[in-house]
Predict the structure.
Amino acid sequence: MRRLLRPAKAAASVAAGAAVLASLGEVAYADSIFSFRRQPAAPPPPPPPDAPAPAAASSGSSGFDPEALERGARALRQINGSRYAKLLFGLMQSQEETRLAEMAAEKVHHDIYWKVKEIEAKRKMGEEYRENLKQQSQIEAQRLRYEDELAKKSKQEEREAERRRDAELVRMQEIGALKREQARRATEQKILEQELQTLKERAKNDRETNKENAISNAKAKAHEAKLTEDYERRMLVELMNGEKEKWLAAINTTFQHIEGGLRTLLTDRSKLVMGIGGVTALAAGVYTTREGARVTWGYVNRILGQPSLIRESSMRKFPLPGLKALKPSSASLSGGAAFENVILHPSLKRRIEHLARATANTKSHDAPFRNMLFYGHPGTGKTLVAREMARKSGLDYAMMTGGDVAPLGSEAVTKIHEIFDWAKKSQKGMLLFIDEADAFLCERNSTHMSEAQRSALNALLFRTGDQSRDIVLVLATNRPGDLDAAITDRIDEVIEFPLPGEEERFLLLKLYLNNYMLKDDDKSSPWSTLLKKQPKKIHVRDISDDLLRDAARKIDGFSGREIAKLMASVQAAVYGSPDCILNPQLFSEVVEYKIAEHQQRMKLASEAAA
Ligand SMILES: Nc1ncnc2c1ncn2[C@@H]1O[C@H](COP(=O)(O)OP(=O)(O)OP(=O)(O)O)[C@@H](O)[C@H]1O
Ligand SMILES: [Mg+2]
């Protein structure tokens, strides 16, 4: 029984201890940082039946019960003394641990609660922030839309202003163009009036001159006829007298015996007068025929003769029947043999051949001619090509040089009109080649141009105003910049003649070696062969293509003319040698000194330019 009571006592004391601890613990919890209410600890085990009544029952009115403490201390002493003390303390410890774990769990729960709260708050903030952003972006979009509209509006206004400006500009340009056109028309009208005036004056002058000429001619003719008549009558009388004397002498000597009869005959004055009259009539007939022929000849010459400005032409000077004209050769153009003596870069040569062929066919196609301008360094073949084109185009051609116009003075205008009037007579169309064009067709404002020259240029402009189906102009110059703008405006094809390249220089050397030293002049007639002193034959030895190519490389910068002259110098050097042999050494010597000469010339030219 005692054995059974002891554990019961121990349990009671443990319970009491626990209650004390719990009451102590309650104080500790109140001090802790957590403010939540502690869960009531598990209800203490029921007190043993013999256990003293709870301390609360015996507590004083102040609420503090010192007995309880004593009881607790006693219980602790009992526990301490009990063999279950260890177990009890273990129990208490695990109880405490459980409580701590619960508290930790509660703390975690609390933390989670706050975290959730926090997250909720953040989510709210996020939402608010998103809402703000949304509103801001809406405001921004609205602002952008507004700005865009503003920009569009201002752009539209700008465009409108620009359109208005453009329209104004166009209007002003139109007014300007109208004014220019009016000025041009006025100038043309003026030129036309001037031309008309000139023509009228010329016609009047011509009429007056013709009248005066006719009167003076008639007077002169009458005078001359009178003189001639007198003279012839005198001569005739003298002749008749001589005859008479002769006859008289003959009659006297031969027929003295019939003196009486003859005297009767010779004294028959009516017969004598009849004889004289017959001879006079014969002389007058001869005179009239001769004068008539002279006047007709002058008329034909005036109407159809070649103007004096033309230096060379395919049209005959006097179109008398039976005389054959100098025919331009057109066959060579189609046969491809044209320009065989002209060395140019292949592309340039092709263009020129093409143009020559097109010019030759223009008339047959009833198309307007295309005027041409050749320009480039001196001696590069402009004149040569223009001549060749003129001769081979199948048209009639006429060549004049610009330098011939200035010396004519006031007559130049008339001469220019003469050329165009004359050129119109050509059935095939006329190629008018004006060499050294800058001398005649230079800028009208230039100070060194005389009034007469200006009028001549105006006359040419007047006659070439429209695209012509009768005349094609080919101008050659080495100063294209000096030409009057109105002239360049009339040009359809502009061709530059550059200095020859190495291959062209080689071909030029070959061409002139052949022309000056290898070719026999077989065109000369037997008569000229007989009459002319024949040149010595040149023997060409070892002049290879390589040697010529080497020379071509060295003579960089030479023009076609310089190369032709170089080969002429080689020819002269060969004729100067005793054996008339051209060998590489002689050739190279001439080439070397010609190069030195060229360089010297270039130096002088650059010094002069500086
Ligand atoms: N491309 C060429 N092919 C063959 N020979 C040429 C060539 N260029 C020039 N020559 C020779 O030079 C000479 C002079 O040429 P041309 O009179 O045609 O020169 P240009 O260009 O009219 O010179 P400029 O401007 O001084 O009047 C010709 O007669 C010819 O012998
Ligand atoms: Mg020339």
